[in-house]
């Protein structure tokens, strides 16, 4: 329950789409008080302040209910919190509504009007489309707009056990088989994201009952960690790597394995892997950042008390995130063997990723010495080296599996999987060329 709560709090601070506001959050003791501390991928000072204000407003709703002589019902509390979330997340919510308006009308046209099921689905979706809140009419943060949002989310939820849901799910699964981003899968995905806000309001209400007698929602501070600075990435100045070169560099290979990898790489060329790799390499601007969860972990490790259990609420060493932890962050936490736990991860990798900054630890007189710089540099290189080894092993395994998978799947599925390989490929190339600044 506590992990879910922390993840939900991180989620409601992730105001905008596209990844900049992805947030990690922990509940710690600081200066004798509970402190909700968070970090985001790319937020400047005013945006961090805005997020702190948003989180405080949210937690204050729970606090005032605990302090009230007569407490409000859970239902009233959930609506109040949901309203707060929706008004703070209005940029993201608006992007969901725009997508939904477009794709619902496409899906309505695609319903099979010859069958009863299709007719019912069309009618249900038409009703939903008519309920779509209109930000132009009601203002984007006005009470009317928020209330119509809440009613709309409730309507989606009511449909979640209806035949409409099955109808959409079946077609969304078809969408996924062909390619990502079809109308049906967008409707399913976006509806799910909107309903997730309702869960994000329910969890803290339950939590404020469970921990009513603690300081958790009664006496707290809120703090934020600065996002990482831009860092010049040099990898893309180099020539793009080929699949064969990447496989060839896998650590600890025997000659027989190298020969086998060469064949694998050749087999993958019918899917134009190398030219896709080259295109991605040349067209993408690289601006790596320290991901939010690494930023927060790094901040905790460097400040007084570090990541020792006593520093966390109830000794629960946990960092929650608004999104599942990416593959590279998982590898990093594995390599540094942290006792802190995180939300479960996903296998995706992102090019715009980097290690936390190096910090030099001074000697007895706190002066930065050549040896302390060397030590920090050595630690940094060791982490990077171990990560590279693990990622290479994973890349080669994926490539091998794809080659052996080839016969078992039809071409669509296979092509789709190869695009995942491409992602790993680019990543491996980048890691190989990362240089110390
Ligand atoms: Zn990450």
Entry keywords:
437 residues; alpha/beta; 5-stranded mixed β-sheet; 16 helices; binds zinc ion; OTT_1508_deam-like
How is this structure best described in words?
This protein is α/β, with parallel strands linked by helices and 437 residues long. It is built from 16 helices and five strands. Helix 14 links the parallel strand 4 (318-321) and strand 5 (341-342). The two termini are 42 Å apart. The model is unreliable at 405-424 and 432-437 (pLDDT under 50). The site of zinc ion (ZN) has 5 residues, from helix 14. Pfam families: OTT_1508_deam (PF14441).
- Side by side, the strands of the main sheet go 3-2-1-4-5
Strand content: 5-15%
Main sheet record: 5 strands, mixed
Q: Please work out how many helical segments DSSP would assign.
A: 16
CA gyration radius, whole angstroms: 25 Å
Along the chain, the helix and strand elements come as HEEHHHHHHHHEHHHHEHEHH
Bound molecules: zinc ion
Distance between the termini: 42 Å
Low-confidence stretches: 405-424, 432-437
Overall outline: flat
Helicity, as a percent range: 55-70%
Label the structural class. alpha/beta
Beta strands, count: 5
Mean pLDDT: 79
Q: Quaternary arrangement of the chains shown? A: single chain
């Amino acid at each position: 329950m506590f992990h879910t709560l922390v993840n939900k709090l991180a989620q409601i601070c992730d105001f905008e789409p596209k990844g900049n506001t992805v947030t990690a959050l922990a509940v710690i003791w600081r200066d004798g008080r509970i402190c909700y501390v968070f970090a985001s991928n790319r937020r400047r000072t005013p945006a961090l302040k805005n997020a702190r204000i948003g989180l405080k407003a949210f937690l204050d709703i729970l606090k005032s209910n605990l302090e009230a002589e007569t407490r409000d019902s859970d239902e009233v509390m959930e609506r109040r919190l949901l309203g707060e979330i929706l008004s703070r997340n209005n940029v993201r919510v608006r992007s969901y509504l725009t997508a939904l308006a477009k794709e619902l009308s496409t899906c309505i046209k695609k319903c099979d009007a010859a069958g009863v099921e299709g007719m019912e689905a069309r009618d249900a979706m038409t009703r939903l489309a008519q309920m779509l809140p209109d930000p132009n009419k009601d203002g984007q943060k006005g009470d009317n707009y928020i209330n119509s949002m809440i009613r709309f989310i409730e309507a989606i939820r009511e449909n979640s056990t209806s035949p409409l849901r099955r109808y959409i799910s079946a077609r969304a699964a078809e969408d996924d088989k062909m390619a990502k981003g079809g109308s049906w899968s967008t409707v399913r995905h976006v509806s799910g994201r909107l309903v997730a806000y309702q869960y994000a309001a329910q969890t803290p209400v339950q939590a404020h009952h469970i921990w009513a007698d603690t300081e958790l929602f009664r006496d707290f501070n809120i703090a934020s960690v600065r996002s990482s600075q831009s860092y010049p990435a040099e990898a893309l100045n180099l020539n793009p790597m080929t699949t064969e070169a990447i496989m060839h560099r896998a650590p600890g290979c025997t000659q027989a394995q190298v020969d086998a990898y060469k064949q694998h790489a050749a087999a993958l060329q019918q899917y134009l892997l190398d030219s896709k790799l080259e295109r991605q390499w040349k067209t993408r601007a690289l601006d790596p950042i320290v991901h939010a969860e690494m930023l927060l972990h790094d901040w905790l490790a460097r400040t007084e008390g570090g990541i020792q259990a006593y520093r966390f609420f109830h000794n629960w060493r946990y960092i929650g995130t608004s999104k599942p932890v990416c593959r590279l962050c998982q590898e990093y936490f594995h390599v540094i063997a942290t006792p802190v736990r995180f939300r479960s991860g996903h296998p995706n990798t992102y090019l715009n990723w980097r290690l936390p900054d190096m910090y030099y630890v001074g000697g007895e007189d706190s002066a930065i010495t050549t040896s302390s710089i060397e030590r920090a540099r050595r630690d940094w290189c060791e982490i990077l080296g171990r990560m590279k080894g693990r990622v290479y092993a994973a890349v080669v395994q994926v490539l091998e599996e794809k080659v052996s998978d080839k016969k078992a799947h039809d071409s669509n599925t296979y092509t789709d999987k190869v695009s995942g390989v491409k992602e790993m490929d680019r990543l491996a190339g980048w890691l190989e060329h990362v240089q110390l600044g």
